Amino acid sequence: MPEGSNVEVAHHLSEHTHSMRAEPWQEKVEIVEVIILAVVAIATAWSGYQAARWDGRQSLDYGISTHLRTQANDASLLGGQQRLLDVSTFNTWIQAKQQGDTKLAAIYVKRFSDEYRVAFVAWLKTHPFTNPNAPAGPSFMPEYHNAKTQEAEALDEQATEVFNQGTEARETADKYIRQTVLFAMALFLVAIAQRFRYKAVRIAAVALAGSIAVLGLIGVIGLPRI
């Protein structure tokens, strides 16, 4: 993993800085280098830890979203079946009504679902047999509500929301990984700086490494944590 490699490099470079006898100015630079190495090693490990946690959050959210989609499909199927049964029963009620069999018609009314029966009563108040502007049936009435269909819509919305949260978690994990790239650049510059014996060049390389490390730290601090 990137964070593990960075920690090993930091440890190696830290040992390397103490293996040579340095001049006074070099000792001060080496202290800064060790600080940068220590901070980068800790920040790299933290970024890797957070990236792994956010990856886990993504998997969890996607799993929940899939489960909610399945529940929504089941509820939608049951809602469609219930509506089909109500419409079929309503058609047989129409036939019994036309034949003047009030007793049979009353039996069919009792077989309506509770939601459909409410819409049926409201539909009768529109005088559908004499009013040409009346709705074609109870299912076209504003009073008609299919509980399972509404449940399916709510579950589908929840699934979409959770899926989006999973996508955001994936993006957050990627941002943490990108910070480890900055820390790796800082380690590389420190390693390069130790090869130079010219004061100005080494200080400039260490300063650049420190700036990149600070930039990476600012990015890590600004990211959400779990």
Characterization of the model:
The chain is mainly alpha-helical. It has one domain. Helices cover 80% and strands 0% of the residues. The chain is built from six helices and no strands. Helix 2 (24-98) packs antiparallel against helix 3, helix 2 (24-98) packs antiparallel against helix 5 and helix 2 packs parallel to helix 6. The chain starts with a helix and ends in a 5-residue tail after the last helix. The model has no long low-confidence stretch (mean pLDDT 88).
What class do helices, strands and sheet pairing give?
mainly alpha
Question: What string gives the helices and strands in order?
Answer: HHHHHH
- Average pLDDT metric: 88
Tally the helices: what do you get?
6
The rough form would be described as rod-shaped
Number of domains: 1
Summarize the model shown.
By secondary structure, this protein is mainly alpha-helical.
Blueprint (SSEs and pairs):
Layout: H1 2-17, H2 24-98, H3 102-110, H4 114-124, H5 147-193, H6 199-221
Helix pairs in contact: 1-2, 1-5, 2-3, 2-5, 2-6, 5-6
List descriptors.
226 residues, mainly alpha, 6 helices, rod-shaped
